Amino acid sequence: MKKRLFQKLARSSYSPGAFLQGLLSLLAGAATAAAFAPYDIAVIPFITLAVLFRLWRAGDRKQAFVNGYLFGLGLFGVGVSWLHVSINLFSGINLAGAYLLTFLLVAYLALFPALAGLLGRWRPVRSEPYFFLALMPSLWVLGEWVRSWLFTGFPWLTLGYTQTAGWLAGYASVAGVFGVSFCCALLAGALALLAGRNSKLVPVLALLAVVAAGWQLRAWPWTHKTGTEIEVALIQAAIPQELKWLPEYRALSLELYPELTEPFWGHDLIIWPETAIPGYLHQFESYIDNLARMARDSNSILLVGIPSKHPASGAQFNSLALLGDTRQIYHKRHLVPFGEYLPFRSVLEGPLDLLNIPMADFTPGGAQEPALFQAQGLALGVSICYEAVFGAEIITSLPQAQVLVNVSNDAWFGASASPHQHLQMARMRAIETSRYLLRATNTGISAIIDEKGRIVGKTRQFEPDAVATSVPLFTGTTPYTISGDKPIVLLALVLLLWALLFSERQRGD
Questions:
Q1: Annotated active-site residue in 144, 274, 393, 432
Q2: Catalytic option among 183, 244, 332, 458
Q3: What does the pLDDT average to over 400-428?
Q4: Cα 114 from Cα 220, distance rounded (Å)
Q5: Is 248 among the residues known to form the active site?
Q6: Catalytic site residue 385?
Q7: Which residue in the list 385, 432, 451, 458 is annotated as catalytic?
Q8: Residue range 169-182: average pLDDT?
Q9: Do 406 and 385 contact (CB within 8 A), yes or no?
Q10: Beta bridge partners of 379
Q11: Model-level pTM greater than 0.90?
Q12: pLDDT attached to residue 11
């Protein structure tokens, strides 16, 4: 009995080999963050994920979980480290507390790759091609998909975004960003298989097929131009976040935005960013009426980001107003937890009061409200800030929308990677829908993005600026616009069911 106990303890100890595996996983995860904006080294995930898959294949369940968790700590620890900026600068929490809260989120996000590794080793799969080319890509993409909606969702650093300008971007029009993630994991699996002892034919064919198909899909004309072009202008006042809401600086916003807009009256569409006006709509009715008059006189449509409040209930909304011949209002539906509202209020309100974390108390707009503005013959699919990271929500305005509009405020995160990553995700929305996307932000990066996700014009960051050009309108649909994320999720589930049917139990695994 003592001998068996000793052997069990020896097997459970963290050996030097296990330590090196863990270190390699951590470094691979950290390196993967460089595949996202602003670095955009798109080939990195194929290598780092191949390394992780090989480690998962070689280890047992426990080691697979640990390696996946360390990979996640590296990926999210580097990739979303910018969160501490807004927590520290705008919540009143010191730098140590900001890092602690950021680490807690990173520790949660790291569970998703950890669980993918654990489930991949839950039942032994004898076939290496199946393990690398079906099982692990499926588990990886399902983990990302669940992360996109669990607890309201946080789909940041979804692997598919690394390919926004890469070889595999064409898959986005067919299966969305999760479809691109699946293909990334498939290529990584093929590389991992090449590093093994099995026949090289299968992984080589898989590599060639995935890359060739992605290249062809990128060029496929899913939608077509209506033949009409509109003149658009995006206005960026670049007023620092720490100043714009101070009463003594309010006049700066009210004067600077019209001044920057003056050269563009007469353009078909002019866009001011999220919360461009620092106050509630009912507090600035005369100012708004004057803007609407100038828009009508110039035959322009003006979109203005401004909070609003329901006159009866007092509910507060993060809103976008269309001014021109008519006034239309869109209320943001998908709010940022802990930034725009408090989830699980009954449990968290007390602890967060102790931490002195200020936050807005917005109400989400009704799901019955169309995320669509229609005026002067234009149909605009609209979203506010964080909503642009959810592809399944953006497509709700299609196929009616001829062009997409997103207003945002990335000033919360300073000169970090966050604005670049946010722009990268907006570019993916343009590819998924095969339409132009117009993105106006407070401090940058404001950009005009074409239907292939390419930036055709952008502003300088942290400077008052504007960007204007002619934009073609589009009609038609992509496969992703019609079916959303369902096909790729279904494919991953079918492949997992296959694993359950054909896997074999082996002693000691």
A1: 274
A2: 332
A3: 94
A4: 37
A5: no
A6: yes
A7: 385
A8: 97
A9: yes
A10: 374
A11: yes
A12: 47
